[in-house]
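Lab notes, practical 5.
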Amino acid sequence: MKKIILLLLAFLLPASAEIKVLKNFTLIDGSGGPAVADAAMMIDNGRIVRIGSAQRLTQPDGAHVIDLDGKFVMPGIINLHGHIGNTVDLTQNAQFYTRENIEKNLRTYAWYGVTTVLSLGTDQDLIFKIRDEQRSGRPTYTRVYTAGRGFTLKGGVGGMPSVTYNLENVAEIPKDVDALAAKKVDIVKVWVDDSLGHRPKIPFEMTKAIIENAHRKGLRVDAHIFYLDDAKQLVNAGLDALAHSVRDQPVDQELIDSMKQHGTWQSAATLTREASMFVYAKPPAFLTDPFFTRAVSPAVITTLSDPDYQKKIAADPDFPKYAGLLEMAQKNLKRLADAGIPYGMGTDTGPPGRFPGFFEQWEMELMVDAGLTPWQVIKAATKSSAEFLRAKDLGTLEVGKWADLIVLGADPRINIRNLRSIEAVYIAGNPVAR
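Output from the prediction step:
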């Protein structure tokens, strides 16, 4: 009788194992090492269980076999600087922060091959439920890491009145950090900027207290910075990561030495963030690119094509500075990379005009334009970014890790724009709808 019951359960319930075999592709595993031709990969319940030569891999009976002859397979892209759930078209508002909008953003990221995103400081408590659901199962859309609520000065840069911690005095900080720690945030975010002199900047006394209290709770701190002097001061105080490039002047040896001493990362250069400040002053070429238009509404295209909107962008008093800030950010990324400072890939996507997915693709092209090789950029966006997140199961395609991967029709080692030749995306072995 017991045997009959077990047989019935096996018939009625989903199988505990789901085996896929991908074969006959060129493997770019994300480690920075040489690619492997004629490779094969076996995936069981979303994890890689075998990987190697297609000729030597024996596929089990009943496996779902996918022949990828002539294709390239690499790890999913990891974005270390995003903001999810608060924007619809070109309007940002905390009232948009719903499960529907969050999931829409995460599915958009996934369509572009971005399989993990770190959301930096503009999240409400709903994010923890979504994150914990993902980590207890097998997600079908982009994985989320979160800083929860970030810190800024009341009236300062980055603040969302009903979301962020908008500080008025340093005494608020310990309890706020304790609240973040209780929710098990993945990192702590602070904005240290004055928007080119237009907004008040959080005092060093406060940022130092944020760093100290975060470290007391075993949490790292990632800071939005702009100025070299702020970067130096914060790194000397133990800051764990810079969430943007320094943009006011070239980085110097003093900062490099301090970053090495403290193990500070350039977690993201956010080059597309700088580009977004001036690119819409005339119709950008991507407005007619199906790779872009597929993921945005007709209303967005209409607005960005409107001459009046373009004139408004160009009328910004600081507009003449923005192209130079992008160039400075690129030069500083290259110098830090050459100096051996660890760096990942991140974009600041999510706010209006910074489009999830497409901008990560563009970011990697701008990183190559800055002087990095495609190999360096691929490693930054995969293995290195996973190392920053301390995500041991992500970032490279190896036995035991999650099968978060992209199938490409062309070789990104030759041209980074070949990352756009996406033919399939898998997250935890689940194919992403495209």
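Observations recorded by the TA: Confidence is low (pLDDT under 50) at residues 1-16. The radius of gyration is 22 Å.
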